[in-house]
Every structure is written in C-alpha cells, then in structure tokens.
C-alpha cells in the first residue's frame, strides 16, 4: 500500500521534493494545500506542475476515513465512528466549548493497556495508527467545522489507545499539527495523555515542546493501581512518579493527573488523603472524572456528594483539583463505547 501523504512532516516533504528534483518551496505549497486549503486530491493543487501532481498521485495515497456513523449530542459534541482501509474502526470526538472547539483523537485501533474500567481495551490492541491516520481525524473534523466557519483550537490525545506505545507516529502527528505553515495549533492547546509508559515519558521530557502532559493515575498507591491498571505491573507507581518528577524538572511544566472515580473502589476519603500526600509539593492539577458506565464492566459511579468531598480533601491539602465537565453523555462519547458496539454488531 502507498504511504499516506499525511504521514509526512513538512521536513520530510522537503526531503522528498529534493529527491524528486523539485525545489523545496514545492513542499511548502503542498503543505498549504493539505492543511490550509484542506484539499484531498492532488489534481486540485493547481499551482503545482502537472507532472509533479501525477508523480505525487503515484507515490502517495490519502487516508480514507469512511464515516460509519456520526452522533451529535444536545451539547454540540459530535462523535464519529470511522472505518479504515483494513475494515478496522476508530472513534473521534469533537467537543464544542464556549472558549473554542477541541478534538479528541485516537492513536491505536483498540488498546492493550487493559484498564479495567475502560471500553477501549475490550478486544485488545489490533494495530497502531500511522501518523497520517491520526492527522486525518483532525483534517476531517476541521472540514466539518469549515461549513460553519469554525476552527479546531485545541487537541487532546485521549482517544482509544496508548499514544506513548505509538510514540514516533504520535510525535510526527504533533509536529504536523503545530507547524505554522499548517493548522498551526498552539502547543499549549494540545494535551497528550499516557497511562504511564516510563521510557516514553523521559523521551517526551527531552523533546523540548510546550505540549501538555496528562497521566492517568486512578489510584494513590501501587497495589490499587495494579488492580485497576495492569500496566502498573510493568511500570510500577514509583517509577512512573520518578519519571514525572524528571519531566517537571526538565520542562518546568505542570502535569495533569487524571483520576477516574469508581464507586466504592478508589473514591473514599482515605484515598483522597493518600493521593494528596503523594502529590504534595508537585506542580500539578488533578482532573476528577466520574467513571463512565460500560455494560461489560461492573463498576458504578461515585455519588455526587462523594465526588465533591474528594475534591475538597485534595484542595484542603493544597492540591488543585477540578471535576471534569461531562460532554456527549447522551451519545456515549467516552472512549471505546461506540467501537465496542460496532464490534459486537459485526460479530453477530
């Protein structure tokens, strides 16, 4: 299969043009067609020579994201289930806020991390997405917003999969997104979320970006985290925390800790007190997430008042904490829910 044109950063396109005997500015023109004009046909790129257009069409393909289904929530959230060229399916979510539009992208088909409260891991990991398949989610969503003169202003890499287990593709995706000749998404408007892949956290710290880092923690200690997140047996809690301390020392940037509250499991006052002690003195923010109901899982939501009490305990200890505003609840916008239903339907 041909490589996807969206797989290539501007620097790689310039290298390709050089090898093709073309001046470097042709790559800039091509990049403009891809990400500013958002054209998906080389023949429409009229300021490129006809011979070059033919050569590009011979060398590259465009990512085909076929829309299997799309749901729109009462709050404006749009959830897509896209089909890929190999009959796999992925989810992408566009969320509308009063401060702009954000997109939640997927980096893998399925997930092997195995978090016991998450729908994404049902069925395991099928494959990594290429950088271009991640890019295509943003381009497709932006084309939707173009119809109403709206713009994607922020990106969260929090869809299905573990981005730090698909590290190089994720980084190429980020380089394409932030480039000032393309979509030019501000680095501080992008967040990458990881379950704690320690070697990749160190690598990411050394990248020198201003991109935000979030860590799915979900427990204040090793034993409980291992029960909820099997990845903790591979990268124990203290190793994860040590890598995050390195990240903060290297970058000076605040970390977001994502904590899914599960009724009767990790949401008791003693859990909040232990978490506050672990995070004491760290430059961080805790995002409390009421767990989404997944039919295949047996977990229940934490009562509303208990969520507020958990937040109060953290804040009394000097740890900044907010409760995530839920969006798309009426369309099952949580990671993996729509794909899981699609897989079940296909299996019938």
Automatic annotation (TrEMBL):
Family (UniProt): Belongs to the radical SAM superfamily. RlmN family.
A molecular-function term among this protein's GO annotations: tRNA binding
InterPro entries to which the protein is assigned, alphabetical: Aldolase_TIM, Methyltransferase_A, RlmN_N, RNA_MTrfase_RlmN, rRNA_lsu_MTrfase_RlmN/Cfr, rSAM, rSAM_sf
Misc remark: Reaction proceeds by a ping-pong mechanism involving intermediate methylation of a conserved cysteine residue.
HAMAP family according to UniProt: RNA_methyltr_RlmN
Entry GO terms, CC: cytoplasm
Residues given in the record as [4Fe-4S] cluster binding sites: 111, 115, 118
Radical SAM core domain: residues covered: 97-330
Predominant place of localization: cytoplasm
Official protein name in the record: Probable dual-specificity RNA methyltransferase RlmN
CC cofactor note: Binds 1 [4Fe-4S] cluster. The cluster is coordinated with 3 cysteines and an exchangeable S-adenosyl-L-methionine.
Primary enzyme class: transferase
UniProt xrefs under NCBIfam families: rRNA_mod_RlmN (TIGR00048)
Biological source species: Paenibacillus sabuli
Top-level division of the source organism's lineage: Bacteria
EC number(s) stated in the UniProt entry for this protein: 2.1.1.192
Subcellular location: Cytoplasm
Cofactor(s) the protein requires to work: [4Fe-4S] cluster
UniProt-annotated catalytic positions: 91 (proton acceptor), 335 (s-methylcysteine intermediate)
Sites where the protein binds S-adenosyl-L-methionine: 161-162, 193, 216-218, 292
Keyword Membrane attributed: no
Function of the molecule: Specifically methylates position 2 of adenine 2503 in 23S rRNA and position 2 of adenine 37 in tRNAs.
Alphabetical keyword list: 4Fe-4S, Cytoplasm, Disulfide bond, Iron, Iron-sulfur, Metal-binding, Methyltransferase, rRNA processing, S-adenosyl-L-methionine, Transferase, tRNA processing
């Amino acid at each position: 299969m041909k490589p996807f044109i969206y797989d290539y950063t501007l620097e790689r396109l310039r290298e390709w043009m050089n090898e093709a005997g073309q001046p470097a500015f042709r790559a800039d023109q091509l990049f403009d067609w891809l990400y500013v004009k958002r054209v998906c046909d080389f023949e429409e790129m009229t300021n490129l020579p006809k011979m070059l257009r033919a050569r590009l069409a011979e060398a590259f393909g465009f990512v085909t994201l076929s829309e299997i289904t799309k749901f729109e929530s009462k709050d404006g959230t749009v959830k897509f289930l896209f089909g890929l060229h190999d009959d796999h399916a992925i989810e992408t979510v566009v969320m509308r806020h009063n401060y702009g539009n954000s997109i939640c992208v997927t980096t893998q088909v399925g997930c092997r991390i195995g978090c016991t409260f998450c729908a994404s891991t049902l069925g395991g990991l099928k494959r990594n997405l290429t950088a271009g398949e991640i890019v295509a989610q943003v381009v497709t969503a932006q084309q939707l917003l173009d119809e109403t003169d709206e713009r994607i202003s922020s990106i969260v890499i929090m869809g299905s999969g573990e981005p730090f287990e698909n590290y190089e593709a994720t980084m190429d995706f980020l380089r394409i997104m932030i480039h000032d000749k393309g979509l030019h998404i501000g680095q501080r408007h992008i967040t990458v979320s990881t379950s704690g892949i320690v070697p990749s956290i160190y690598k990411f710290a050394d990248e020198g970006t201003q991109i935000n880092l979030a860590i799915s923690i979900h427990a204040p200690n090793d034993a409980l985290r291992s029960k909820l997140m099997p990845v903790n047996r591979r990268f124990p809690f203290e190793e994860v925390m040590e890598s995050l301390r390195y990240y903060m020392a290297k970058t000076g940037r605040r970390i977001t800790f994502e904590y899914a509250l599960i009724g009767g499991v990790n949401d008791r006052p003693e859990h909040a007190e232990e978490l506050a002690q672990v995070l004491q003195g760290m430059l961080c923010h805790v995002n409390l997430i009421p767990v989404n109901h997944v039919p295949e899982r047996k977990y229940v939501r934490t009562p509303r008042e208990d969520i507020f009490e958990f937040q109060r305990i953290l804040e009394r200890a000097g740890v900044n904490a907010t409760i995530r505003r839920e969006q798309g609840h009426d369309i099952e916008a949580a990671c993996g829910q729509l794909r899981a239903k699609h897989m079940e339907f296909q299996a019938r």
